[in-house]
Each structure stands twice: as structure tokens, then as C-alpha cells.
């Protein structure tokens, strides 16, 4: 079916309403909307079937709208047969979807585009060796296309000012590494802290002071007759406070006593789980006296022997505001704790201290960022042990170590300031420095003379204001980082001879300019090619090797180019491509849209969701790096997971547990539903609202991303299926309403069966065999607490593709998609890679190239091969 | 000398204490109005407040059958009862091109077609506030101010950096915390006039430098390619316009915040954040620092601050139960905050005895009605700035363009404009 499917998709893309609907149109519309009648000012006789302009598209859109809404034909007129209406609506929707894509592509597409926020951050990192905060810039995402698509990347005056400000910060951060006269190396220090002393003191103080102290006084008051007028004698403003303090101790005291009496609490500190004031986080602070630089944080940690696997994860994070230590914990990373009390585990975590960044890192047991969730979990354990959440993680000691010498001296410093003549006119030296820096910043292009003149003026202004030379030079360098040569990927003069020859040796070689003079479709210069390649596979600038190959023209040789693609994919930086591309391609931002119900999905907290997202990126990256078939995204006999996800999925590796924080390949049991995108928690959870599954979202996602056959976007102003909302009926029952009216059925007959076939996965992507309907609140039953299940039904996943084969369960659904739709899937992937790499949507003119690549991929679907062919294509190498 | 002037203004303010009825500029005979007759009309102001995710359909809108003055304020607007003569609720407005159910603000004030420019998957056009800013901006230190929130991504506003889009349809950045807004308006630069002059000169030399590089890159580009570079060049010109304006205002010290408003604390969020922003908004208008303000409000942190444990997007898809309760609570809190704002605006008396509210057009609404509905956008207009009838519930024909209302309000406030966005005319129903 593969090839036939692909052709069908191509045909649909011609954006034409099938002429077979003429009769439908003539009999139901023309009486009132002909040239003569023009009822309501609407005329349809001159509406072309081929949708080639926005105007035509809009008129058809209105036709679709009134038919969908059931407004036309008016009730008193003869109504179309449901079947005919259904077919017409389906066809028209398809044509309009295709038209939108096609019309949106018209017009010249520019090669010039601004670096998006990710690329900008990476470019500063590669150039200066610093990580800067770019959150003040627009994210460049959210309009539904890739953040590499040039037309969506705007510039404004505010933004330009942000670039200047960030550029100054970045240069200042980099300059802190530059050697200064009389510099001494900062002394490396290690500071270890045994945590139990402070922890015990904190909890003892809390217990004996507020809780037990208050409890005893209140009891004395009770013993003395509980006179409400005498509370002040016992230190309470009124009787409510006195009674509250008795309660407070009874609620919290036992947990604190439990903590103090727990085994091994004389040698280390347990992490509690309850909220404020309890010892639920451990912190490592690098004191202000320690200079900025690279540091190592170390912790010696263990898990309790009886701690369940899901509770053996430590979370590291920062807290928002210095003023409010209780402000939200912001998770950075989770670590699996495999150590035991007898053999604790040493965690070593590199961090970077900057002038303005955080100096304190917090560690706690992995969990939701939600006090309600803490309270709930605490109550659950309390119903069992009478105390509170079982203690699971134990810390022996913590330490920091640094600054750790970076090993490599600052590249920028060497290349920009190295080997300069000690004497000479200051202006001349500054000029040389700025030209050298410009060549690095501008990815090999040489800054023009008049630009350098202006930069020297900027420098002189700073000097006059009293700056030392090495300080004054920062300003023009920062200005370069806000100038078009840095911010824009555009290199029209790459091929022109350099004009600047003063002072420094000029090693810029000229590219061979292509004979093709047509500015709109010329071949990229070698340097443009290097740049496009680097931002495609690294989301970062070309490195020295790539630029050298571009300068020598070698990069033009297909074998050299292919070898570079291999080298780049093998580089660590290709993970940024995998993450950036798959996140946007698969629409993973939807995962952050919802708050997951912590009572129903207690393990699906922020860290688990983050790991679930990474599974998608890492799986893609592994197929890329190992050149495995892209169709393995549909079905695979292994998965790429870390200890956290393996625990979440309940996977082991042929009987041995999967542990550790690094992602690795794990072979699956043949009966496992995992393996492939459809078995991934991130994908399945996106198709939910955090509480319940959404078969419609899932089904539409499968059509869009896996079958490459997108349904038209959901029309606005369609009522929700609210009628059955709070009633205990099955999801299948709920969706049956979609079949009631043709305007709903035309899309949902394709969407819903697929979504229903995925119902064995709950809203957080765990396997289930029953659907449950929950009431509000929760109860304790047989010492086990949980939500009230009002009713439950067995999952019935069986169904059929619209106009296609049937399936009995998830496995058959997945296998059908993997076998019959593999080619369509790969074509969709290629179209998306194409748009991402070249920075513009796929247009009609690209149909042939896409077709050729799809056909090659049918023979060799290796992901790296696909990327290689894309890079080798005429389209990639031309603008 | 300038320093002395600044001191004397401060002194006047301090002497007046926190008496809000301080006709600040008038008392000092500032600028062109020094010679204006006392009876001259006070300047008009415009304020747009956008709240992203829509409202609770069942409890926010007045009954469609009760129009005119005689209507019952529904539950969601109840908190505004004491102001009912000072605003009008309008039903039936929508934005015909809107098709993104999560974009409550992107096209709210523009009425643009996302696909309006061939070859682009996204385009926008000027927002109504910027039309007013273009007309009035030369009168004040800031042509317009955009207030926003760090919580925007979570609040159903859609793409954009604030509610405002410039004349070329590009997003304008906002002041996203009360601290930023306060300091932009009221904090002295802390340096001498000479230093500030030098700083402006230095900024200009930076712009000259990047412009020189822009012309290098631009050389040799094809016509189609220059589009993006022109955007950059335009950004330089926009900064220069700002610098020119700063130069013009260099010798005029920033005013002290009216009403004894102190610098806000870092990190306020949710309800307090909106309240503090409203205070700053009043102070900004009162000191005539600007006449046009938009505010893209937080929804996520508002809910969180109310102790509501429902994600904003989930709330907007309310069903009877916890989510609908959350949605209603949100409506009520926002109305309560708005009532407080109207109190403040009504309390500020101007030199001619009118109130600030009498001269302000204040719009409160969203492009999203509720859930995924984009028609009948919730719309409330308060204040006498545009001369529309107040104290009423007006139902206009279904699908009347929102842009018609913007055009009506602009014209009513004296801004000449023939059309705006997809407008088809003015909303005549709003005038007597």
C-alpha cells in the first residue's frame, strides 16, 4: 500500500474540489446563489474548483462553514442526502487543508533568517564558552511551524536591545576567564559537611519547641480546668490556639520523633517527605567568597532497604527567589539512588557558578511540585504506619569542590588577543582584535572596514569614559554580537574578495562562485553550505574544521560532505538537533499543557515527564547515530530508557534491573507494548488532559504524524461533548455522539477508532485493562487510600481503520500502522526534516525531490541515510 | 538647575502627601497646557486589559434578552455592581479570522488574518492601542506602555510579547513584572544630565556601528532577501526614535509615583500582581507619563494564588465540578480586581473637575469566549473616554467584527481612523 498511499497524498495536495460534486452543488446551492439570484449577496456560480488564491479558499471556507453548521440549505429547502453531504464535506475539507499549505507557500522564500533562540544560545556557547540566560528573548515557537522557518523569526527594537544586553553579559562572563596582569590562579577548595548535625538540630528544635512545647503547655492548661479565660497564663491567645497546638503535635510530632529515632540518623540524615519546615531538602551552597567557575557537587547517598523502587530517586533543583526559601522548587535533574546504607553511592554533579546565577542547589526525593501531592502521599502512608510518609532516602554527607580548572585556555582569548605586537597605535591594535573576533563571530566572514571604523569609535567612547583597554574592548565586541553578521544566517558576500588587509594576516580564501547568476535560485557558497549544515545537525555554528573545508572548497566534494555529516552526527552536539527537531515535529509542547492528577498518577511528576520526553529524543538520536531504519519509530523490539523510565514502565533487561541515569538500549519482551512512538509515555500522555485519555487527540495525532494524512484542524465553535460529561459512561459511549451528525462523522470516523485502539494506555501512558470512572474525593478502605471508583469497564480496543482493515487490539493496530503505513510515515518525516533543515515549508516545487527521497527511503530507510540524501540534494545546496 | 526643578516637583508632591487629587502637570504649568484655558477638555486615555483564556459562559454574560439599562449583572460580573453606570457589556463581537482556540490575545486588538500575507505562515497587523499611541504619543514621555506577566505562556494569550503589535504587525515587548513597570515609569536614572547625554551619544554610536554591518550584509542580497534585513534596520530606526524622544525629555525628570505608590516587591504573582499592576497603571495615567496602556494578564499564577489546583488550560475546558468552580472563581476575582481599578480611576480628579475614568476608555476582554469558542468574545468597556453610552448591556448582530468596536472607540476618543483590521464600520448602537 505504501506507494499507493504516497500518491494519494500527493494528489490530495493539488487543492481542488472534486468535480464530481458539481451535481451536489447545482441541486442544493445554485437556486439561490447563481449570478442572477445572489441571495444574501453570495454568488457561487463563479467559484472555481481549483483553490489557488486566498480569496477562493475563503469563499470555500464559508461554504464549508454553513454546511457544517447546518445553516445551509435552509430548513424549508430540500436537504441533501447524508451520504452525499458527508462525502462532499470530507472532500472539501481535504482540499482546503491542502490549499492552506499550498497558498501559504507562495512568494519568494528568503535565505536570510535570524538565529532562533536555541541557536543563538548555542552560538554564544561555542564562540565564548559561556552559557547565558536567554529567557528575555522570544521563544520563536508557538506558531505551529519550526523555529528554523525564517518567515516566522521577527526582529523588533526591544529585541535588538535584548541582544545588546545579553551580548554584554556574555562578553563579561567570558572576560572573567581572560588572564589579567598579576593574576593568580584561584585556589581550589573542598568543603564537606556532615548533614546529620544540622538536620537533627532543626528537627529537635521544631519538635521540642513548637510542637512538644506547645502540646505540654496546652495539656497543662487542660489539666488546670481548660478555662478559656486563662489561656494567656499558658502562653496562648485563646482556647482555639491551645486546642490547635494539641492537634498540631498529634499530627506532626510522631513523624518528627520517627525521624530522630530512625536507624542511621546518627551518621546521616533521612529526607522527610512532608512540607514546610520539615527536613525534606538538603542544600549545598557555594559561598560568595568562592570565585565563579566550574565546581563539583558530591553527595554520599543511600536508599532504605525497604524503599520501593519508584522512591529511589533524588531530585536536584534550584529555588526561585532568594527572599523566599520556600518558593517553588525548580527541578534540574533526577538521579537514581542505587546505594545502600552499608554501601552508599557517591554522586558527583558538575555545576557552573556565574556572577549572577544560583549558588545553592537543593536535593529532595523526586515528586510533584505540589504541596497537595505531598500532603496526599503523606496521608496515604500515615493510614498504614500511623506516622507519615516512610523514610526512603538517606544522605551521609555533602560537599563542594572547586573551582575546577577548565583545562583548555580560553579559545577566544588566544585567537583574538594572542600574538599581538606589544607596541603600536592603540587604534590599530584594537582594529586587529575586532577584526579577528568578527571573523570568529561571523562564521568566517570578514567584517567590513566602515563597520570596524564605527566599532573603534565605540571603543574610544568607552576609553574616554575611563575604562581600561581590556574593559573598553568588551563593548564593541558585545555590539558585534548584536549585529546582523552575527544574528542572521545570510552570507551574500561570502564569495567576494576581502577588502580588509591591514595589520593582520588575511587567511580568508575565496569560494568558487557558481556560474548560476539567478539570485533567486543560486547554489550556496561553500561557507553558506557549512553554515546551513551546522545549524541543521547541531543547531550551532560551524566549527573550525567545517569552516576550513568550506574555505578550501573541499566541502563541495560529495565524499567529503558525507564524511562531515557522519562526523557531525557522531558529535555530542547532534543531540540538540534530535531534541529540537523531534520536540517540534511531534508537538511535544502539548505535554506541558496539563497538570497531571497526582492522585491518579503519583509517579508521573515533572522528572518522569522530562525523562519521558527524553526517551523520544534519545530514541530518534539512536536511530540517527546507528543509521537504523526510521520505521522503527513505529515498532521496535527495543527501547532507549534510563533507570527512571525503566522503573516507570516496569522493564528489566533480561531479568536484571535497568539502573542509572544514562539512557541506553534495552531489549523488550516480545509481548511488551513498548517499542516505537505509540508505546512511549510522552506520546500517550500528550493524548490526554492529565486526568483522562483523549482518544480524539491520540487518533488525530496518529493521522497527522504517523500516517501523514492530517485531518483538517478542529473547527472553532464546535460544542464540546458536554452532555455526558459527569455521567459514568464509557469513553466509547461518549464518542458515539461523533457519529450522530455528518459534519462530525466525516473526520471522526477516521480519528476515533485509532484513538480507541490506544485505550489500553491510561492518561499517563501506563498499561491498563480497565477503564475507571472516578467520583470526587478519596477514601481509605482496608488501610489503602485512593480515589473512589464509581464504576469500571474492561477496555475494548477492537476497531477498524476507516475504509481499511480491522484490528482486535493495540498490537494489531500498531502492526498495521508499522507495515502498511511505513512509507507514508517516512515521507512525512522527510517533509518535516526538509522544512526544518532548509528553513521554509515544503512547496509544490519540491514535490519531485521529496518523491525521490521517499523512494530511496523505501529501499534504505536508515535515518542517517535519509539525512545524508537530504544534505546531498539540490534543494539543500541551493537557495 | 534641572536638579533643582526636580527637587521642587518632588517637594510639591511630598507636601501634597498622598492626596490623590493632585493635578500634577497643571499645578506646575507644564508644557503646552500651561496656557490652555482651564475649561479645555482633558486628554483622552485608552487602556486595554486582556485575560487570555475566556470566561465561564453560563455565569459571565448577561441574559441576551435583557438589553439596555435594565439588565441583571450575572454572577461573574457581580463584583462590578457599584460601577454599573460606568461600563457597558457588549455581546455579539468576534474576530472572523480567529481560528486558534488557545490564542486569546494574538489577534484580539488587531483583527488580522493569520494567513493574510502570502508566503507566511503567520502575519499580524497593528493593534488598536498602537493606533491611539501613534496619534497621542508625542504628548507624553512614553507613547504607550505594555504591561505583561511572566506567566503569559500559561495564560492562553497565544503568540506575541504583549497585547500590542506595531504598525508592521510585529510584536511589541512588554514590561512583564510590576518591578520593571514601576522602574521604567518612576525611577530616576541616578546619573547626572551630562552622563545621560553621554550615554545617549554612546547608544547612538552603537546603532551607527550595527547599521554599518547591516549595509554590508544587505549589499548583494536579492530583493526577496532584503525583507528580513529591513526588519532589522527598522528596529534600529525605532530605537533612534526612542532616543530622540529621550533626548527631548532629558531635562524633564521622571515624576514621582502619584498617590504615594511605593516600589513593588520582587516576585509578586497572581492576584497581588494584577492589583499592583493596576496601581501602577493608575499612577502612570495620573502623572500623564503615557496615555495608552495595554496589560496582558496572568491566569496561571492567579489560579495558583487562589489555591486552585487546576491548570489554566484545563480550567478553560471546564465541566461542571472542580474545573467550572475554578473558572467561576477566576471570573469573580478578576471582576473584583477590575472594580478596584475603576474605584481608583474614578477617585482621581482632574483639573476640570472630571475624573480620570471620565476621560479614559478602558476595555476588558479576550478573544476566547470560553472553552474553544471564539465567537461572542467577552467584552466590557468602561469610562467616558470615547463617549459611548454606559451602564448598558448591548447585543450587536452576531459576528460583528471586534475591529468595529476598536474603530468606534478610537473615533470616539478623537483618533482619526477610517478602518481597523477587518472592520466593516462603526458600532452605531453604542451612541445615543
Residue stretches of chain B low in confidence (pLDDT < 50, at least 5 long) are 1-39
Structural class of chain B: alpha/beta
CA-based gyration radius of chain A: 32 Å
SS elements, strand count of chain A = 19
- Percent strand of chain A equals 5-15%
| H and E string of chain B | HHEHEHEHHHHEHHHEEEH
State the major sheet of chain B. 7 strands, mixed
The residue-averaged pLDDT of chain A reads 85
- Weakly predicted, low-confidence segments of chain A: 1-13, 322-326, 493-519
Instruction: Report the structural category of chain A.
Output: alpha+beta
Second rung of CATH, namely the architecture of the largest domain in chain B: 3-Layer(aba) Sandwich
Cα(first) to Cα(last) distance of chain B is: 52 Å
CATH superfamily placement of the largest domain in chain B: Alkaline Phosphatase, subunit A
Q: How many beta strands in the DSSP annotation of chain B?
A: 7
How many helices of chain A in DSSP terms? 31
Most extensive chain-chain interface: A-B, 87 and 68 residues
What's the overall geometry of chain A? globular
CATH third-tier fold name of the largest domain in chain B: Alkaline Phosphatase, subunit A
Alpha-carbon distance between the two ends of chain A: 34 Å
- Principal-axes shape call of chain B: globular
Short recap of the structure:
Chain A is of the alpha+beta class and 879 residues long. Chain A is 43% helix and 12% strand. A seven-stranded mixed beta sheet of chain B has the order 3-4-1-5-6-2-7, with helices on both faces.
Walk me through what this model shows.
The complex is a heterodimer of chains A (about 900) and B (about 425). Chain A is α+β, with helices and mostly antiparallel strands and about 900 residues long. Chain A folds into 6 domains: about 1-105, no CATH class; about 190-195 and about 270-405, Jelly Rolls, CATH 2.60.120; about 195-265; about 520-570; about 580-820, no CATH class; about 820-875. Chain A contains 31 helices and 19 strands. In chain A, strands 2, 3, 5, 8 and 10 form a 5-stranded antiparallel sheet that branches. Chain A has a 4-stranded antiparallel sheet with strand order 4-9-6-7, with no helix packed on it. Chain A has a two-stranded antiparallel ribbon with strand order 1-11. Chain B is α/β, with parallel strands linked by helices. Chain B has 12 helices and 7 strands. In chain B, strands 3-4-1-5-6-2-7 form a 7-stranded mixed sheet, with helices on both faces. Chain B starts with a helix and ends in a 20-residue tail after the last helix. At the A-B interface, helix 5, strand 1, helix 7, helix 13 and helix 15 of A face helix 6 and helix 7 of B.
Amino acid at each position: 500500500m505504501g506507494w499507493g498511499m504516497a500518491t494519494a497524498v500527493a494528489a490530495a495536495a493539488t487543492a481542488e474540489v472534486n468535480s464530481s460534486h458539481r451535481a451536489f452543488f447545482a441541486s442544493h446551492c445554485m437556486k439561490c446563489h447563481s449570478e442572477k439570484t445572489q441571495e444574501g449577496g453570495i454568488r457561487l456560480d463563479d467559484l472555481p474548483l481549483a483553490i489557488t488564491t486566498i480569496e477562493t479558499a475563503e469563499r470555500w471556507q464559508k461554504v464549508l462553514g454553513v454546511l457544517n453548521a447546518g445553516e445551509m440549505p435552509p430548513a424549508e429547502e430540500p436537504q441533501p442526502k447524508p451520504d452525499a453531504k458527508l462525502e462532499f464535506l470530507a472532500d472539501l475539507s481535504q482540499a482546503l487543508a491542502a490549499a492552506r499549505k499550498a497558498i501559504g507557500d507562495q512568494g519568494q522564500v528568503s535565505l536570510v533568517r535570524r538565529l532562533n533562540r536555541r541557536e543563538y544560545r548555542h552560538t554564544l556557547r561555542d564562540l565564548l564558552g559561556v552559557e547565558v540566560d536567554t529567557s528575555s528573548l522570544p521563544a520563536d515557537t508557538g506558531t505551529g511551524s519550526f523555529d528554523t522557518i525564517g518567515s516566522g523569526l521577527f526582529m523588533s527594537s526591544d529585541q535588538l536591545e535584548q541582544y545588546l544586553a545579553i551580548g554584554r553579559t556574555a562578553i563579561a562572563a567570558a572576560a572573567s576567564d581572560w588572564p589579567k596582569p598579576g593574576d593568580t590562579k584561584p585556589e581550589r577548595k573542598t568543603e564537606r559537611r556532615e548533614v546529620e548535625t544540622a538536620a537533627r538540630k532543626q528537627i529537635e528544635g521544631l519538635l521540642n519547641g513548637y510542637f512538644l512545647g506547645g502540646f505540654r503547655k496546652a495539656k497543662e492548661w487542660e489539666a488546670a480546668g481548660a478555662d478559656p479565660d486563662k489561656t494567656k497564663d499558658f502562653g496562648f491567645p485563646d482556647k482555639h490556639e491551645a486546642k490547635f497546638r494539641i492537634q498540631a503535635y498529634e499530627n506532626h510530632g510522631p513523624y518528627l520523633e520517627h525521624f530522630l529515632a530512625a536507624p542511621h540518623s546518627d551518621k546521616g540524615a533521612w529526607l522527610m517527605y512532608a512540607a514546610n519546615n520539615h527536613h525534606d531538602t538538603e542544600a549545598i551552597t557555594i559561598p560568595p567568597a568562592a570565585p565563579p567557575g566550574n565546581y563539583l557537587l558530591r553527595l554520599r547517598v543511600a536508599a532504605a532497604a525497604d524503599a520501593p523502587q519508584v522512591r529511589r530517586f533524588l531530585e536536584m533543583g534550584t529555588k526561585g527567589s532568594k527572599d523566599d526559601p520556600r518558593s517553588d522548587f525548580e527541578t534540574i535533574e533526577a538521579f537514581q539512588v542505587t546505594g545502600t546504607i552499608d554501601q552508599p553511592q557517591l554522586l558527583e554533579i558538575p555545576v557552573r557558578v556565574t556572577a549572577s546565577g544560583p549558588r545553592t542547589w537543593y536535593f529532595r526525593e523526586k515528586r510533584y511540585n505540589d504541596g497537595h501531592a505531598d500532603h496526599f502521599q503523606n496521608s496515604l502512608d500515615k493510614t498504614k504506619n500511623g506516622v507519615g510518609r516512610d523514610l526512603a532516602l538517606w544522605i551521609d554527607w555533602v560537599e563542594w569542590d572547586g573551582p575546577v580548572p577548565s583545562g583548555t585556555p580560553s579559545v577566544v582569548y588566544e585567537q583574538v588577543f594572542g600574538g599581538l605586537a606589544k607596541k603600536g597605535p592603540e587604534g590599530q591594535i584594537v582594529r586587529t582584535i575586532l577584526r579577528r573576533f568578527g571573523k570568529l563571530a561571523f562564521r568566517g566572514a570578514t567584517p567590513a572596514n566602515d563597520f570596524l571604523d564605527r566599532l573603534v569609535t565605540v571603543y574610544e567612547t568607552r576609553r574616554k569614559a575611563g575604562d581600561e583597554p581590556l574593559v573598553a574592548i568588551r563593548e564593541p565586541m558585545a555590539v558585534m554580537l548584536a549585529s546582523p553578521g552575527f544574528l542572521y544566517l545570510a552570507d551574500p558576500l561570502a564569495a567576494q574578495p576581502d577588502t580588509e588587509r591591514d595589520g593582520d594576516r588575511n587567511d580568508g580564501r575565496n569560494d568558487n562562485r557558481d556560474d548560476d547568476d539567478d539570485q533567486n535560485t543560486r547554489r550556496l557558497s561553500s561557507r553558506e553550505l557549512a553554515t546551513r549544515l551546522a545549524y541543521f545537525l547541531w543547531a550551532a555554528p560551524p566549527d573550525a574544521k567545517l569552516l576550513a573545508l568550506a574555505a578550501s572548497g573541499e566541502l563541495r566534494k560529495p565524499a567529503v560532505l558525507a564524511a562531515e555529516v557522519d562526523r557531525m552526527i557522531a558529535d555530542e552536539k547532534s543531540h540538540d538537533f534530535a531534541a529540537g527537531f523531534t520536540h517540534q515535529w511531534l508537538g511535544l509542547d502539548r505535554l506541558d499543557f496539563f497538570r497531571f492528577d497526582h492522585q491518579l498518577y503519583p509517579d508521573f511528576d515533572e522528572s518522569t515527564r522530562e525523562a519521558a520526553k527524553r526517551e523520544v529524543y534519545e530514541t530518534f538520536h539512536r536511530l540517527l547515530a546507528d543509521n537504523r531504519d526510521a520505521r522503527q519509530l513505529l515498532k521496535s523490539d527495543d527501547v532507549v530508557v534510563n533507570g527512571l523510565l525503566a522503573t516507570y514502565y516496569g522493564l528489566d533487561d533480561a531479568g536484571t534491573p535497568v539502573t542509572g541515569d544514562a539512557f541506553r538500549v534495552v531489549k523488550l519482551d516480545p509481548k511488551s507494548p513498548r517499542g516505537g512512538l505509540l508505546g512511549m509515555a510522552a506520546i500517550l500522555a500528550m493524548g490526554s488532559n492529565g486526568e483522562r485519555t483523549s482518544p480524539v487527540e491520540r487518533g488525530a495525532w496518529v493521522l497527522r504524524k504517523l500516517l501523514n494524512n492530517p485531518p483538517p484542524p478542529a473547527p472553532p465553535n464546535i460544542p464540546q461533548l458536554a452532555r455526558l460529561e459527569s455521567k459514568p459512561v464509557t469513553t466509547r459511549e461518549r464518542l458515539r455522539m461523533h457519529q450522530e451528525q455528518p459534519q462530525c462523522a466525516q473526520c471522526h470516523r477516521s480519528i476515533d477508532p485509532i484513538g480507541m485502539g490506544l485505550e489500553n494506555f491510561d492518561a499517563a501512558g501506563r498499561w491498563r485493562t480497565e477503564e475507571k470512572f472516578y467520583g470526587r474525593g478519596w477514601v481509605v478502605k482496608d488501610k489503602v487510600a485512593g480515589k473512589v471508583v464509581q464504576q469500571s469497564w474492561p477496555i475494548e480496543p477492537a476497531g477498524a481503520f476507516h475504509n481499511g482493515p480491522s484490528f482486535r487490539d493495540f498490537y494489531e493496530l500498531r502492526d498495521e500502522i508499522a507495515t502498511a503505513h511505513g512509507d507514508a510515515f517516512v515521507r512525512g518525516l522527510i517533509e518535516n526534516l526538509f522544512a526544518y533543515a532548509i528553513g521554509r515549508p515544503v512547496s509544490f516545487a519540491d514535490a519531485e525531490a521529496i518523491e525521490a527521497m521517499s523512494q530511496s527511503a523505501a529501499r534504505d530507510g536508515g535515518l542517517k541515510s535519509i539525512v545524508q540524501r537530504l544534505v546531498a540534494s539540490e534543494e539543500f545546496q541551493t537557495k | 538647575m534641572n536638579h533643582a526643578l526636580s527637587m521642587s516637583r518632588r517637594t510639591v508632591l511630598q507636601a501634597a502627601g498622598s492626596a490623590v487629587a493632585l493635578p500634577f502637570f497643571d499645578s506646575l504649568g507644564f508644557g503646552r497646557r500651561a496656557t490652555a484655558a482651564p475649561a479645555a477638555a482633558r486628554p483622552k486615555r485608552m487602556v486595554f486589559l486582556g485575560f487570555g483564556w475566556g470566561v465561564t459562559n453560563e455565569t459571565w454574560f448577561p441574559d441576551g434578552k435583557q438589553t439596555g439599562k435594565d439588565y441583571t449583572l450575572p454572577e461573574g460580573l457581580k463584583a462590578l455592581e457599584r460601577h454599573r453606570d460606568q461600563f457597558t457589556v457588549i455581546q455579539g463581537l468576534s474576530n472572523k479570522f480567529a481560528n486558534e482556540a488557545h490564542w486569546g490575545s494574538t489577534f484580539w486588538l488587531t483583527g488580522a488574518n493569520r494567513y493574510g500575507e502570502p508566503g507566511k505562515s503567520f502575519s499580524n497587523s497593528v493593534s488598536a492601542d498602537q493606533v491611539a499611541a501613534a496619534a497621542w504619543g508625542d504628548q507624553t514621555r512614553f507613547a504607550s506602555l505594555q504591561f505583561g506577566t511572566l506567566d503569559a505562556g500559561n495564560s492562553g494569550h497565544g503568540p506575541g510579547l504583549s497585547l500590542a503589535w506595531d504598525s508592521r504587525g510585529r510584536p511589541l515587548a512588554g514590561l512583564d513584572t510590576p518591578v520593571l513597570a514601576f522602574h521604567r515609569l518612576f525611577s530616576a536614572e541616578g546619573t547626572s544630565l551630562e552622563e545621560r547625554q553621554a550615554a545617549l551619544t554612546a547608544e547612538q554610536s552603537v546603532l551607527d556601528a550595527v547599521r554599518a554591518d547591516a549595509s554590508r550584509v544587505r549589499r548583494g542580497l536579492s530583493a526577496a532577501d532584503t525583507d528580513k534585513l529591513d526588519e532589522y534596520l527598522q528596529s534600529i530606526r525605532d530605537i533612534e526614535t526612542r532616543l530622540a524622544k529621550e533626548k527631548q525629555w532629558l531635562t524633564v525628570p521622571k515624576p514621582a509615583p502619584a498617590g504615594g505608590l511605593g516600589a513593588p516587591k520582587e516576585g509578586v504573582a497572581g492576584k497581588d500582581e494584577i492589583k499592583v499592576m493596576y496601581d501602577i497603571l493608575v499612577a502612570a495615567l495620573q502623572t500623564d507619563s503615557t496615555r495608552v496602556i495595554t496589560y496582558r494578564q496572568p491566569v496561571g499564577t492567579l489560579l495558583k494564588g487562589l489555591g486552585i489546583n487546576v491548570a489554566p488550560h484545563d480550567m478553560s475546558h471546564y465541566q461542571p465540578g472542580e474545573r467550572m468552580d475554578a473558572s467561576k472563581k477566576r471570573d469573580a476575582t478578576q471582576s473584583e480586581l477590575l472594580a478596584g481599578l475603576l474605584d481608583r480611576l474614578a477617585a482621581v480628579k482632574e483639573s476640570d473637575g472630571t475624573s480620570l475614568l471620565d476621560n479614559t476608555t478602558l476595555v476588558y476582554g479576550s478573544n476566547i469566549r470560553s472553552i474553544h469558542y471564539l465567537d461572542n468574545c467577552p467584552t466590557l468597556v468602561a469610562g467616558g473616554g470615547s463617549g459611548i453610552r454606559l451602564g448598558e448591556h448591548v447585543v450587536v448582530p452576531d459576528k460583528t467584527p471586534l475591529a468595529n468596536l476598536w474603530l468606534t472607540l478610537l473615533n470616539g476618543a478623537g483618533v482619526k481612523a477610517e478602518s481597523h483590521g477587518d472592520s466593516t464600520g462603526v458600532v452605531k448602537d453604542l451612541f445615543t
